[in-house]
Amino acid sequence: MKVTEKDVAYVADLANLELTQAERERMVRDLNSILEHIDSLNELDTTNVPPMAQIPDRFGVDESRQGSERFAYTIREDVLEGLRKSLPHDVALANAPDSDGTFFEVPKVIER
Amino acid sequence: MVTAADSSVAAHARYEPVIGLEVHVQLLTVTKIFCSCSTRFGDPPNTNVCPVCLGLPGALPVLNRKAVEFAVLAAMALNCRVNETSIFARKNYFYPDLPKGYQISQYDRPLAEHGWIDIDSEGGTKKIGITRLHLEEDAGKSLHEGFPDAVEKTAIDLNRSGVPLIEIVSEPDIASPGEAYEYLTRLKEIILYTGVSDCNMEEGSLRCDANVSVRPHGQKEFGTKTEVKNVNSFRFIREALAYEIERQIELIDSGGKVTQETRLYNANEGKTYGMRSKEQAHDYRYFPEPDLLPLVVDEKWSSQIRKLLPELPEARRERMVVDYGITEKDAQVLTSSKALADQFEEAAKSAKNPKRVANLVQSELIGRLKAKGLEIEQSPISMKGVAQSSDLVDVGAISGKMLKDLYDLCFQRGKDFPVVYDEEGRPQQSSDTSALEKIIDELIAANPRQVEQYRAGKKTVAGFFVGQVMKASKGQANPQVVNELVAKKLG
Questions:
Q1: CB B65 to CB A53 under 8 A?
Q2: A81 burial level (CB within 10 Å; 0-12, 13-18, 19+)
Q3: Which of A84, A100, A104, A105 to mutate against chain B (most B CBs within 10 Å)?
């Protein structure tokens, strides 16, 4: 058991989730089985493989180029609405659960 | 009797404060850091927003090249080492003005590290280390009051969400509120020179959080620190730090313990207050942002950016003191903004006598500005105007007295020197000796007693005649010529 119930309670708290006892037990089980599965990677020798967080860092880049140019295609110029237009105001607010027509509104924020 | 002030002095002698500052600076890009919405300040709420900066599902960030270049420029100006590869990371926390539930920032591999700036402190110049400088996005803005539903609701404006920021973290090298103030002043000045931010504190383009702790002198370990937030001027930061240091020392001296917490500064009361917060420390669960590639700033790119680096204020001041023979203090005034320093130098170089231009600024301009309560940027007389007036004095066309009068008129009328000079009919000091000789002859005839005194050896009487000639010529006679003529006629 790598993940304890205490860990689950802590992460749930950080995620603003209130879990029932039953849910907490299920989470402990699920998370541990995921980690066990990931553990099977330990069978491989990764001594000389640098950690990879971003897949396109190795795949999709222009292999013929080096340095900044290798990744240049993922950077854009500082041009107003060059990539896409901003949303019209009413469209931006359309899906908001609550709004006064100008702002998004949320229940009064009180620092936790 | 031991007064409160005495015991506080004694307590201060036993403790030393340790201060570190985190400064957020908004970059002057046209668009946001990860989308092409406008960064303009003051637009109607929620009008510069799109799926990316609203955090709508499926939207993907695309990095703004200019934001990178500005951040690198700032890093270079602050003597940082720019890392060839840096990584964006997600900082996870919940707040309504952070729609994604995480802020894209940088964590274990920031853009730049190991910088420093020099500040003036009591013991002379002091180096303050800069731990790191990294790129991140701003959050939106929460309004807690000032709108109809404010009793029950918080209003959110997401125009600011995704605006590019750099965070500059200092080493805990700052040992007093005064040094913190000095560090911020220098930092702001350098950033302004690079042109990557307007550093406007009212608009939130520059924000500062301060970490402060105290420890007994000689102790190596740091004391428990508190973080002071919500401070919107350098002066208030200095006051907040002074209060906080005092509070911590008193707490420790009375057997208490400092709690690690965030405290807000109330400028009206001059006090800090602890925010209600949970026991657990913040756990942002940083992890690498999978939606963005590593940021690679290679030698070629960074050398292109380095070419954009201007001469920085400290170096410029030193050079100007040498080049123009001005005082350190006046160099300080003239370099208060890059635009002003540029104007001054351009004018001074175009003038016949650059040092005279500097002297005029020093002796004639700054005093008049002070009297009117104006900043040098608001001066009616431009640097070009000062240069023109300097040239006129240089060729003997106008006297110092005439220049003073013309400057007074410029300030009265709120107009630049060339305009007023034309309006006054381009006055010339008179060097026409025959006209002056006539005036002197008349004066000698009218004042026989003074002539006698002079010829009897009381040479100072010459001053009386010179004064009368200047008066008769309405101050437009060339004083040097008048002096010579008077001496000749009386002699």
A1: no
A2: middle
A3: A104
Closest CA to B53 of B134, B167, B162: B162
According to DSSP, the residues that pair with B89 across neighbouring strands are B105, B288
Residue B209 pairs in a beta bridge with B22
Q: Which of B151, B289, B301 sits opposite A68 (nearest CB)?
A: B301
Q: A88 to chain B: nearest residue by CA?
A: B47
Number of A to B CB contacts under 8 A, please give it: 152
Quick one: average pLDDT of B80-106?
A: 94
Q: B207 - beta bridge partners?
A: B24
Could you tell me which chain A residue has the CA closest to the CA of B102? A15
Structure tokens at B480: 């040097």
Task: Please give the residue of chain B at the shortest CA–CA distance from A74.
Answer: B62
Q: Which residues of B touch A52 (CB under 8 A)?
A: none
Residue B208 contacts residue B20 (beta carbons within 8 Å): no
Q: Mark yes or no for CB contact B92/A14 under 8 Å.
A: yes
Inter-chain residue contact A66 with B64, CB threshold 8 Å:
no
Interface touch A105/B31, C-beta < 8 Å:
no
Binary contact (A84, B35; C-beta < 8 A):
yes
**In chain B, what are the domains?**
4-304 (no CATH), 313-423 (no CATH), 433-490 (1.10.10.410)
Q: What percentage of residues in chain B have a pLDDT greater than 90?
A: 42
Which of B152, B280, B288 lies nearest to residue A54, judging by beta carbons? B288
Prediction ipTM score? 0.86
Domain extent listing, chain A: 5-42
CA dist., res. B489 & res. B251, Å (int): 84
What does CATH list as the number for A5-42? 1.10.20
> At B134, is the pLDDT very low, low, confident or very high (cuts 50, 70, 90)?
very high
Cα A19 to Cα A15, A33, B37, B144: the distances in Å are: 11, 19, 39, 30
d(CA B189, CA B236): 18
- Tens digit of each residue's pLDDT (9 = 90 or more) over B372-382: 888 877 889 98
* Cβ–Cβ < 8 Å for B106, B77: no
Query: Which residues on neighbouring strands pair with residue A105, listed in sequence order?
Result: B155
Calculate the average pLDDT of chain B.
87
- Alpha-carbon span B142 to B99, nearest angstrom: 12
pLDDT at B385 exceeding the cut of 80: yes
pTM: 0.79
pLDDT in tens, B2-43: 444 455 555 667 889 999 999 999 999 999 999 999 999 999
Residue B17 Cα, gap to closest chain A Cα (Å): 28
Nearest 5°: the CA angle B15, B20, B26 is: 155
What residues of B are in contact with residue A107 (Cβ under 8 Å)? 152-154
